[in-house]
Design goal:
The structure is a homodimer of 417-residue chains.
Chain A (H helix, E strand, L loop, with lengths): L5 E8 L1 H4 L7 H10 L3 E9 L3 H14 L2 E5 L10 H9 L3 E3 L1 H13 L13 E3 L3 E3 L8 E6 L2 E6 L3 H19 L5 E10 L3 H8 L10 E7 L2 E10 L2 H18 L4 E3 L5 H12 L3 E5 L5 H6 L9 E6 L3 H8 L3 H7 L4 H15 L3 E7 L14 E8 L2 E8 L5 H20 L1
Parallel strand pairs in A: 1-2, 1-3, 3-8, 13-14, 13-15
Antiparallel strand pairs in A: 4-5, 6-7, 7-8, 9-11, 9-12, 10-11, 15-16, 16-17
Helix pairs in contact in A: 2-6, 3-4, 9-14
């Protein structure tokens, strides 16, 4: 029998999260970091800027989990209630930390800015809390004990949260808590396979009781597969995962594009650099997204020769030399125009590989012959031209564009690898 | 006194969410839709694909909230446990729905595909549940009563979730539940103002007890401000919000770029179209992101003449005609090169406005004079050239690129409006 894995919960705070202005991405990042310490996050909770509601939530979670990490609600504005709620849940008053106040004043002075009065709120903490300095922003975090559970409070802005997590919270957790049973994780990222086909090909690897446990999720053409092994020792967990991973690599050799980074562009830049190839892009319906995905990689300039966003028919002709007669005869969304775009991009940039994307992203502009979701891809490899058609489900403009950009970059991968 | 607003909770299900593979965006969309019916979502919960954990979560939330809406975990694979957990929480067995099974078989046959065996799982529901058909995918949803609360289960993929929400769940809620006290909401999206300056300028509009209640959040340069008014009647709530909104528009006239759509590019396309202006883009460090933001708008082709992604120095010269000597003398990240890029883009495309972006997105490539975060913007308006410098905090590559793309599009807005 394995010992109990220590359990944790993450809380994200903000009316804007509940209002759907944007999703909580902090809790996922925190959970990933805690997993490496053997602490399993079992639950994320998102609550608004209501002190009472947050106080009750923190109290309940600290009674149930050994570690609770929350992010947000410690900024300078009046809707930042986390300090008050944490103090109330711990049953202690707020106290002004004179050192933090001085630090705040100095850090504003250094940037030649006057400290807004509201920033003073950021120097108050629940009595007895351990302050965690903020190296990249103005809101310090803190740790406080509530009914046996440890509550850590981090800032809401993702880069401040990540910095304080890495610099302050993780080292403290590592030194304070012993290690639980060992976990090992392996991820695979696949393109070009529907989820239900994957499920059938993966078979009983996906059973609920399996160790390693396999999880899969599909998102605009990308399958993310996670293997999680658990054993008494780190070596044991790693061996379990390594054995399954070896079989997995064999079964899905053609579809795996990455084992560490989900970003399609980053994986492709790495592949192109290793092969010494140069790529050019000509985009219509994706409007720059494929280029953007490619340049997410810091080293993209090594392999990315040039990109064109030729959204209008005139731009396709003026910038890429596509014959206007071709567009009139076949339409902008056609094999012929896709190939001409790829050819133009390759010739003008000197790249040896060029891919072009032209399609109907919707919501308007679809016809019975060329419905929303139809996309043509043109490929030029060493001067040789080809074209591929894909029909994506007519979901929404954003998803169709993302699907199409992923497929375009994957076409290059399959040709180059 | 106002009556009690009906309270709800959202649950998102999936190990991949807890693993931080991507954030839960469904709950935010569901909360926005429920708010329009006067149902206030007070809490989001994310749990993994563990039947026991989910069963307990659903049971607890249904005891506390009148409406619980969950998404995910009803796909064909073995890690889809929502059907089982909902049945267990309701204390009823699962039953095969023969009609749904037949529908599943037919929908596969129509697409000339063989139904994978695992898809049969999608035809089982808790006994007594009301099935909600899925018009855009294979997993039907359902509604079931658990201890007085109504649990609605929607699919996880966002486009399927949204379709079933709009087509099935909202009409049903509208016909079944009466209206609670009225809520009215107004949003503003601002660029070019730090959050703490905003807070000082907004003053007591942001007090916790204010009605309308004002919330603000900052994200890569964008401030999202939400006013939420509450009153006995819809007219009363709207009047409260309208009065504050009028004052707000006056105080932040220069910074507001949108009142409905947060997407900077969409707002700019609307503005350019209303003024009959045409835009060209020349991007280096943003690598296509500005073009991508602009073409999120379905009508972008009206105003977007052409875009170049000239990531390398050679591409800047070859594609945009930037004098190589200029790059040698001033460096690629400079006012001179930014202006030359904008000029090249305007001349080659015939657009009357062009904006160019060249900067150090990091993580490498920074120097003491040109640190990570330094970005130069070049602007060509009717042939007249100018340049603007911005120094973003050296957070991370993705945020710097996003900041820079937002600022570039905002520069155009401020010149054109």
């Amino acid at each position: 029998m394995l010992g109990e894995v220590r359990k944790a919960a993450c809380v994200a705070i903000g009316d804007e999260l509940l209002a759907g202005d944007y999703p909580d991405s902090n809790s996922g990042a925190i959970a990933q970091a805690l997993a490496e310490l053997g602490i399993e996050v079992e639950r994320f909770v998102v609550v608004g800027d209501s002190k009472e509601n947050l106080e009750r939530t923190l109290y309940d979670l600290c009674a149930r989990y050994q570690v609770v990490v929350c992010s947000g609600g410690i900024g300078p504005t009046l809707d930042d209630v986390t300090r008050d709620a944490a103090a109330a849940a711990a049953g202690v008053p707020l106290e002004l930390d004179a050192k933090v106040l001085e630090w705040l004043r100095e850090s504003y002075a250094r940037r030649n800015r006057k400290m807004a009065l509201s920033n003073e709120r950021q120097a108050w903490f629940p009595s007895g809390a351990q302050v965690m300095p903020n190296a990249v922003g103005t809101a310090p975090g803190f740790r406080v004990w509530i009914d046996g559970g440890m509550l850590a409070v981090l800032p809401g802005p993702p880069h401040e949260m990540r910095d304080m997590l890495q610099r302050e919270l993780l080292p403290w957790l590592r030194s304070t808590c012993g290690q639980g049973p060992a976990l090992a994780t392996q991820r695979f990222y696949l393109l070009g396979l529907p989820e239900s086909n994957f499920s059938d090909r993966a078979g009983d690897w996906m059973a609920r009781g399996a160790n390693p446990l396999m999880g899969v999720t599909a998102h605009t053409g990308i399958l993310k597969v996670t293997l999680r092994g658990r054993a008494e020792s780190p070596e044991g967990a790693q061996a379990l995962v390594a054995a399954r991973a070896a079989e997995f690599r064999e079964r899905f050799a053609a579809e795996i594009y990455s084992e560490d980074d989900p970003r399609v562009g980053v994986a492709l830049v790495r592949l192109l650099a290793s092969k010494g190839r140069k790529l050019a892009l000509a985009e219509s319906c994706t409007g720059g997204l494929a280029a953007e995905l490619l340049t997410e990689a810091a080293g993209a300039s090594q392999v990315f020769q040039a990109g064109w966003v030729t959204y209008s028919n005139e731009a396709k002709s003026a910038c890429l030399g596509v014959d206007p007669a071709l567009i009139v005869r076949h339409g902008a969304v056609s094999a012929e125009v896709a190939k001409a775009m790829a050819q133009g991009a390759a010739q003008r940039s000197g790249a040896d590989v060029a891919v072009a994307i032209t399609g109907v992203a919707g919501p308007d502009g679809g016809t019975p012959e060329k419905p929303v979701g139809l996309v043509w891809f043109g490929l030029s490899v060493g001067g040789e031209l080809s074209a591929v058609e894909q029909r994506f489900p007519p979901v929404d403009r954003t998803s169709i564009r993302r699907y199409a950009a992923h497929v375009a970059l994957d076409l290059v991968r399959r040709h180059v690898r």
